[in-house]
Amino acid sequence: MRRAVGVLVIVALVGLALVWSLQRRLIYFPSPGPLPPAATALPGGQDVNFTTDDQIRLAGWYFPVEGADAAVLVFPGNGGDRSMRVPIAAALNRMGLSVLLFDYRGYGGNPGTPSEDGLAADARAAATWLAEQPGVERIGYYGESLGAAVAVGLAVERAPQALMLRSPFTSLPDVGATHYPWLPVRWLLRDRYPSIERIGSLRVPLLVIAGDRDDIVPEPMSRRLYDAAAEPKRYVLVSGAGHNDLALLAGAHVLDAIRGFVSASGLTW
């Protein structure tokens, strides 16, 4: 009996060690790249580069709108690359907003390996580059899923004119505990993204968008984050939409909500 218990303990410890060492491969799902030129994604698109404080050179696509004095920085989720965010960029352009799409380290052909600290550094570099563009006077943040957590983290350091979060979560341990209730994920996770601890300190107009059939970030989790935020804020629930459904990515309901919000927030005049 003692031997059997000992074997089980060893197996459990080995399993936990594997989860610990491989956890970031279970969190980040980058497309390797390379990507085509920005002009093939949208007319007038520009290929851009900027460098983080830790000397990681990142690539992005900039879609300026002539005469626009406001821009949106888009924070991607944990999968794919910036090419998957072109529909939201195109929609924001139609609203009169310039847009910067960028990829985190390790994504879309960028060097480096993703981590919470790394993505925070990437976000700072992207925001700095965008703020330096001619004519850009106001910047809004748009974050989706994991990118919503990155956007919240940056907003604490550098407040935007407006903050838009699609399918945001309270913290990464909360998401992990939802999907892996049999694992001690709250103890194991190195990357935390504690948006619930940060959101209350923000004093910027907030839009939260969630789908009621989201099986990746359960809608009540997005609602909980919203409830912890200060006014002014707006919550938009997209009926029948799952995490990666087109209706939640760039559907008519979502775009109507964004259009009204950017006007009310002062991002566009």
Automatic annotation (TrEMBL):
Q: Where is the Serine aminopeptidase S33 domain?
A: 68-179
Protein known as? Serine aminopeptidase S33 domain-containing protein
User: Which InterPro entries does this entry report, sorted A to Z?
Assistant: AB_hydrolase_fold, Hydrolase_4
Residue span of the signal peptide, if any? none
Q: Which residues form a coiled coil?
A: none
